[in-house]
Amino acid sequence: MKELEIEIQQHPHFKGLEVPAYQTEGSSGFDLVAANEEPIMICPGQRVLIPTGISISLPLGYEVQIRPRSGLALRHGVTLLNTPGTIDSDYRGEIKVIMINLGQEDFKVTRGTRIAQAVLAEVVKARFISVDNLTETLRGSGGFGHTGF
Distance (Å, rounded) from C-alpha 147 to C-alpha 73? Predict the structure, then answer.
């Protein structure tokens, strides 16, 4: 498995929390935790921006994708908006996570709660070329629901 060293800056409100880590040897994503000073209540239908207390330095050609945690979604109806979120290689600000409560009950985010997972990914840039016609395919321009429901 390929490994890459990523520099991490811990902001003052991160103090006392654990550095992001993979939970198992086979995990694709590492956990991000909430670095809020006081508990944050997310009411049903409400969205909130949660700080993680860290910034990272990614090498050119990489991104980090921020994704929901399946356990929070299943047990509490809590997920992320703008998913997957993208942390670009030239972003140096604090990573923050947009959480939404789609469940029936309030959800409390306490300091240290694992709120999201982040996946490091290589980036391939496209070079766009204007053409008069695209290559033909069996599907053609068939869009939403064209193969049935």
Answer: 29
**Residues linked to residue 119 through DSSP beta bridges, in sequence order:** 65
- In the chain, the number of structural domains is 1
Q: What is the pTM of this model?
A: 0.89
Measured CA to CA, the distance from residue 100 to residue 80 in angstroms comes to: 6
In-domain check, residue 94: yes
- Give the CATH number of the domain where residue 118 resides: 2.70.40.10
Question: Average pLDDT over the chain, rounded to whole?
Answer: 95
Supply the range of the domain harboring residue 104: 7-122
- 3-state secondary structure at position 125: coil
Task: Tell me if 28 is assigned to some domain.
Answer: yes
Question: Strand order in 85-87's β-sheet?
Answer: 30-33, 114-122, 62-67, 85-87
127, two tokens: 């070079």
Instruction: Report how far residue 75's alpha carbon sits from residue 77's, in angstroms, rounded to the nearest whole number.
Output: 6
